[in-house]
Amino acid sequence: MNRACALLLALAVAVGCSATGTHGRAPVPTRTCAVLSVGEFYGIAHAGVLRQLQRQGVRIDCVVGNSMGSVVGALYAADPKADPVERMRGLLQAYVVESEREFSKDKLKYLAAEAVKRLTDGGLDLGAFRRLSHARFVRVLDAALGHRAIEQLALPYATFHQRKDGGGLRLVTVVAGNAADAIGASAANPLIFEDIDLKVAARIDPGADRLSALPVSDACRLFPGARLIAVNVTGEPMALAAGVACPVQHIVVARRPVIDREEAAQGGAEFDRLVAEGEAAAASAALRR
Question: For position 286, what pLDDT does the model report?
Fold first, then answer.
């Protein structure tokens, strides 16, 4: 082989190696999505994580959430510059105010029903009226979101629920339509709302499906190539479908065995403890901006 041919061969090999090296590297994500797990009232910790990400200057470009993660996530997607903790607290306080208003309006009817209950099972529980009613919560959430559709939120947003289909369940992806209605379907869980009956509800919380409990795989399908900040309050390991190509940063919020759900639902001290746990988990994670 003469010198000229050898030089051409060397250049070809060099160019080939350079091209292989360039294309072999994973592309740099152009957007970052927050992926928020199910977890009933433990999901209040999501607000603490999002607040800490704001403090760290981590930009969130899209939000995917299920169950309580869908609630916290939608409030953030609607107004990403606001304090997510105070947005969530404000929602719960607005619910309490609406409950008191409805109680005052229908007091005689409610007291009559409770009187019958007292006669039949010995319990008069006026506090039950103030606990989370699914229909009332969806109405309050709709007002908090300005009656907006998902496509009108400030950030791209997606949530999921399971719909009864014959004798089984089918996962439904929601990326459009009234936001509060979609969230209400995703959060239809008797651990959050005492008036949800899984035997008759047509749409339910998807958290029983391990892939939907922390919807990383679905988030990557909807936002391919995005960096996913997956916030896990379930107390279970993250599950991924085969072939998920998105880079994932996993924030695990430790789950206490017992919480005061009623106090958390009213924005009290338990609410603040859950928020603090979310903040601490995000602060300890090594996240790039």
Answer: 72
